[in-house]
UniProtKB/TrEMBL annotation:
Species: Paenibacillus lignilyticus
Record protein name field: Alpha/beta hydrolase
AB hydrolase-1 domain segment(s): 14-232
SUPFAM superfamilies xrefs: alpha/beta-Hydrolases (SSF53474)
UniProt key word Lyase: no
Keywords from the UniProt entry: Hydrolase
Record InterPro entries: AB_hydrolase_1, AB_hydrolase_fold, Sec-Metab_Biosynth_Hydrolase
GO molecular function, one term: hydrolase activity
Pfam families reported for this sequence: Abhydrolase_6 (PF12697)
Length: 253
């Protein structure tokens, strides 16, 4: 018993996977706080994001890049965290390296059903907006209009911060969000999982048939639920200590 208690106090190893219209730098504040708490933290970048200008990428390319990062760094016993679109990446990455994962954490992350896409999780008018943005782009990418970003992604931010975060966002490759994913293997896995629900997140309508929790989270079966104040993006910049603590609560033994 003494040895088990000691093991529970050991620092965790986090691999943090960002979402759409973001890059690995999205995690800078939260990662710094987790490291200050004594944890090891890794923030892989994936194709079509960060400094990569190529928007012609697939969901499989993104997933493989994250799995390859985990293998290349010889990471084991990890807590694999997916925010937003990163939730779908975590699902498929878990299929590739299940033996290296201690726990999966979805941080207002998409939990897709087998055969679904990320775009499928939105109401029809939003799906149509994404399709229109895709059709009018020159490189099959999605650029959100500022009013949409302001009201849905950063509703807790003041206007100055909202504009700053919007200016930092880069065009998002469209293809991966529209791909319907085979997740049969994911749903056969028994890796422990948690859902960290940010209660003011306005990206998805919290109505019947939509929303982060309980609509999407319930697809995980038995899972740990942790709640925190926060919208989709603001608190990652303004309250990284709070989110780091909540991530720890979602991830500890």
């Amino acid at each position: 018993m003494e040895q088990r208690a000691k093991e529970r106090e050991q620092p965790l190893t986090f691999v943090l996977v960002h979402g759409s219209w973001a890059d690995a730098g999205f995690w800078n504040g939260v990662a710094a706080m987790l490291r200050r708490m004594g944890h090891r933290v890794y923030t892989p970048e994936y194709p079509g994001h960060g400094s990569d200008p190529n928007k012609n990428v697939t969901h499989a390319m993104i997933t493989k890049a994250v799995a390859d990062f985990i293998i290349a760094n010889n990471l084991r016993d990890i807590v694999l965290v997916g925010h937003s679109f990163g939730g779908s990446v975590v699902q498929k990455t878990a299929e590739l390296v299940p033996d290296r994962i201690k726990r999966l954490v979805f941080m207002d992350g998409f939990v897709l059903g087998d055969g679904q896409s990320v775009v499928d999780q939105f109401p029809l008018p939003v799906q149509q907006m994404f399709e229109q943005l895709r059709q009018t782009s020159k490189d099959d990418s999605l650029v959100l209009p500022f009013p949409v970003f302001r009201e849905l992604f950063v509703n807790l931010a003041d206007i100055k911060l909202a504009q700053q975060l919007y200016n930092e966002a880069k065009p998002e490759p469209a293809k991966p969000a529209f791909e319907k994913l085979d997740l049969k293997k994911f749903y056969s896995l028994t890796i422990p999982r948690s859902y960290l629900y940010l209660t003011e997140d306005n990206l998805l309508p919290q109505g019947e048939g939509y929303g982060w929790h309980p609509h999407m989270s319930s697809r995980l079966g038995v899972f740990r639920l942790i709640r925190s104040h926060g919208d989709h993006m603001t608190y990652f910049r303004t309250q990284p200590g709070l989110l780091a603590q909540k991530l720890y609560e979602a991830s500890r033994d």
